[in-house]
Write a structure and sequence with these properties.
The structure is a single chain. With about 475 residues, the protein is an alpha+beta fold. It has 12 helices and 13 strands. β12 and β13 form a beta hairpin. α7 crosses α8, α8 crosses α10 and α10 crosses α11. The longest helix has 24 residues. It is globular, with a radius of gyration of 29 Å. The termini are far apart.
């Protein structure tokens, strides 16, 4: 036996002393999400965060640590909000063909610059731990600063706010019909709303029943969509009324009927034929300016002379929404809502006139306005208050606050003075979105840009005291 080698241990030799250290206690590793082998993800760009979700479990069984507590509208499908890579996404269980069709439709509407949610992915071939098939899902990006109508109405808003929501939906429906999109299920539940300089902007959420007709919609298709909208809105508001969550002065039927009147007014302005004497050629520019004021550009205008050349008939042939948005983006690089853009452009024009810059290049003055007016306001917002509103909406509210201060004090209040007062008296009292959203862990909160404060609540003082 070689030197230094321990003799073998034989049975019956008696107890032996262990020469090896005791084994360390076994520590169970946290259970990682299981990705089914056959699962298929269809996406333009796959977010790695998708792979961390528990796809081997039904959506209704997903654990709370991956779910984001956000207000949800009514849906025929099960929907959950989850954290992905730096943003929140909505996950909806549905059929495979329906999910793929809606994903492609949303991508098409995005390319056409229609206000809608961003499609992220379609996930199919899901199975559970026992190999049983699970429903496919459609994943869309949650729209920042948006809320479903039920979250707004739960604050018992005044009837005027109800009409502004319906007006926003009417404008969205007109924009969809102009490009030949038949919605098929127009409702407040299938729409998200964002603040837009005192008004609301509507965004399409559910395109499941939608279809795009390249040749345009017939009058019958448009009227059917409009009637579906009227009936659905009335039913949704009656439901809120029965639950005591609608202002008693708001008539659900009157509000729902308003979408018909508002839609037809907009549709006539955008597509209607106008005839006038050839000596009134100024009315051509007047029609263009009216459409610009509504937020539309005319890409093509049909002009015909009739009755021996004494009459002129004009009709917009191609209109494109986002007139003020495009001008603001071109001049300043700022991306804002249509009404926000209108308000910022008005302040830019006022700055140009007030400082004698009319003779200078418009883009140069716009750059000066951004660096001397807009950006200092945004930078002055304390870090803990950022994210409660979009910067463009903050600037709009600041201008409103400055005007009211000037009226009350009968003097011209400076912008820095108004900014300080607005931050302390208004913005600081807004409800923080973190009160609504549960972060995925206690140590790594993911901030969300969600504003659920409603400044039109009947009892503002009571609301502020409760924050």
């Amino acid at each position: 036996m070689p030197a230094g080698t321990a003799p073998p241990v034989r049975p019956g030799d008696g107890p032996q002393t262990a020469t090896h250290p005791p084994a360390a206690p076994r520590v169970r590793a946290p259970k990682e999400p299981t990705v089914p082998d056959s699962m298929s993800i269809t996406a333009a760009t796959v977010d790695p965060g998708l792979l961390d979700l528990p796809w081997d479990r039904p959506l209704e069984d997903w654990p709370d640590d991956v779910i984001v507590a956000l207000p949800k509208g009514i849906s025929r499908h099960l929907v959950r909000f989850v954290h992905l890579s730096g943003y929140v996404a909505a996950v909806k269980e549905t059929g495979e063909e329906v999910a793929r069709a809606e994903y492609e439709m949303l991508r098409t509407l995005q390319r056409m610059d229609v206000p809608c949610v961003d499609p992220v992915a379609v996930i199919t071939n899901r199975v559970d731990a026992d190999g049983e098939p699970l429903h496919p899902v459609l994943v869309t990006r949650h729209l920042r600063f948006s809320l479903p109508y039920r979250a707004l109405y739960s604050q018992t808003l005044r009837p005027e706010t109800a009409t502004r929501l319906v007006d926003a939906l009417a404008l969205l429906l007109v924009r969809l019909h102009v490009i030949g999109f038949y919605w098929g299920d127009v409702s407040l539940s299938n729409t998200l709303f964002r603040r837009d300089a005192g008004a609301f902007a509507a965004y399409l959420v559910d395109a499941e029943t939608g279809k795009l007709y390249p040749g345009g919609l017939s009058n019958g298709q448009r009227e059917n969509d409009l009637e579906v909208a009227r009936v659905n809105i009335a039913g949704e508001l009656l439901d809120l009324e029965a639950g005591g969550r609608l202002d008693e002065n708001a008539d659900p039927v009157d509000v729902s009927n308003r979408i018909v009147a508002q839609y037809r007014t907009l549709w006539k302005e955008l597509t209607g034929t106008e005839q006038f004497d050839i000596r009134e050629r100024w009315r051509i520019n007047d029609r263009v300016e009216r459409l610009n004021a509504l937020g539309f550009d005319i890409e093509e205008l049909s002009i015909l002379t009739t009755e021996g050349g004494s009459q002129v008939r004009i009709q917009p042939k191609v209109v494109d929404a986002g007139h003020h948005q495009r001008r603001l983006l071109r001049l300043t690089g700022l991306d804002a809502g249509e009404n926000q853009a209108r308000r910022l452009l008005n302040d830019l024009d006022a700055y140009r006139a007030r400082n004698g810059r009319e003779a200078l290049d418009e883009e140069m003055v716009a750059h000066e306005w951004v660096s001397r007016v807009f950006e200092p306001v945004v930078r002055s917002i304390p870090r803990d208050l950022r994210g409660r509103l979009e910067p463009a909406e903050v600037f709009h509210e600041l201008l409103e606050h400055r005007w009211f201060m000037s009226q009350a004090e009968e003097r011209s209040v400076s912008l820095p003075e108004a900014t300080t007062a607005y931050i302390n008296d208004v913005l600081r009292h807004r409800r923080d979105e973190r009160l609504l959203i549960n972060p995925p862990t206690a140590s790594v909160p993911v901030p969300m840009d969600l504003d659920d404060h409603v400044d039109e609540a009947d009892d503002v003082e009571d609301w502020r005291a409760g924050v």
